[in-house]
Amino acid sequence: MIEKLIKSACGAAKEAGELIKKGFGTAFTIYSKDGKNNLVTEYDKLSEKMIIQSLQKDFPNSVFLAEESGSSAFTDEDAIRWIIDPLDGTVNFAHNLPIFSISIAAEKNKELLCGVIYNPILDELFYAGRGQGAFFNDKKISVSENADFETSFLVTGFPYNVEKNPCNCIDHFVSIIKRGIPVRRLGSAALDLAYVACGRFDGFWEINLNPWDLAAGAILVKEAGGLVTQYSGEDFKINHKSILATNGKIHKEVVETLRACDCGMDF
Ligand code: IPD
Ligand code: CA
Ligand code: CA
Question: How far away, in angstroms, is 119 Cα from ligand 2 center?
């Protein structure tokens, strides 16, 4: 079952990736969603349609939670639910910056069964299945070994509403970067998580994310041997918005640093 889900999600991600790659750098339509810089393009919509059609063909009784079309109702509580971000990193895509991905996860009875993240520009495919490990272009991957927070390499992101968000993650960013620890901001949360899973980064944190940004990446990091929690260090669920994903070894120190921030965030 899990193998079939992975195969189907990888197929759908590759197919949509082909489409997005063709559209990259062309004159496509860009719309603003909520907020001046929260963008959506015609490729977000086309990609989502293509992914849903493809998954529906393989799993006709599926239900969906997809960024652009919302959620469909459960007809059967045992149905597979696909959680889809058809283009994660839309702002990069809209500015012709080749850092973006497609993110697809499957869950059943609220438990994640598999996750797939695909960067069509680099042809990098990450996938994981529950209890089966995590893979990058078909090779098994694991999180980094670095246990030293001071020499770690981290990545974060900032929500679209950072202007209005009183407990914004700028404070968290500042408190870590001031220690001289390198922190990147790539603009695709799904890729950030895939890169923690394969050891490129030692950790990632962000607030105000949605299930479609997080679901596939969370299972990838866990299956690669990493740790995924909320900022507080408490158990993570895909609708929890705040996420901290690390190699496990630096987790405690990152939690302490985030919690020590006097930014008014309610942990
Ligand atoms: C965004 C990206 C970005 C993160 C934002 C997300 P989108 O998703 O993942 O890295 O900082 O919070 O909303 O809008 O490009 O699908
Ligand atoms: Ca996203
Ligand atoms: Ca998106």
Answer: 13
- How remote is the CA of residue 3 from the centroid of ligand 1, in Å? 28
Confidence (pLDDT) at 267: 57
Of the listed ligands, the closest to the CA of 48 is 3
Q: Do 60 and 30 share a structural domain?
A: yes
* Ligand number, closest to the Cα atom of 67: 3
Residue 134 phi/psi, 5° resolution?
-120, 150
| 267 inside domain | no
Structural domains counted in the chain:
2
Query: What is the mean pLDDT for each group of 10 consecutive residues in the chain (267 residues)?
Result: 97 98 93 81 97 97 94 83 98 97 97 98 98 97 98 93 72 91 98 98 95 98 97 89 95 92 67
CB 116 within 8 A of CB 105: yes
Same domain, 196 and 238: yes
| 191 alpha carbon, closest ligand | 1
Q: Does residue 266 form part of some domain?
A: no
* Site of tokens 């989502």: 48
From the alpha carbon of 44, which atom of ligand 1 is closest? 16
User: By residue range, what is the domain housing residue 66?
Assistant: 2-141
DSSP alpha helix (H) spans, 83-210: 90-94, 170-177, 189-197
Give, using CA atoms, the residue closest to atom 11 of ligand 1.
157
> Which atom of ligand 1 is least distant from the CA of 212?
16
111 and 45 within one domain: yes
Q: 102 - beta bridge partners?
A: 118
* C-alpha 213 – ligand 2 centre gap (Å): 4
Write out the E strands in 89-242.
Answer: 101-108, 111-119, 124-129, 133-136, 139-141, 154-156, 183-184, 203-206, 227-229
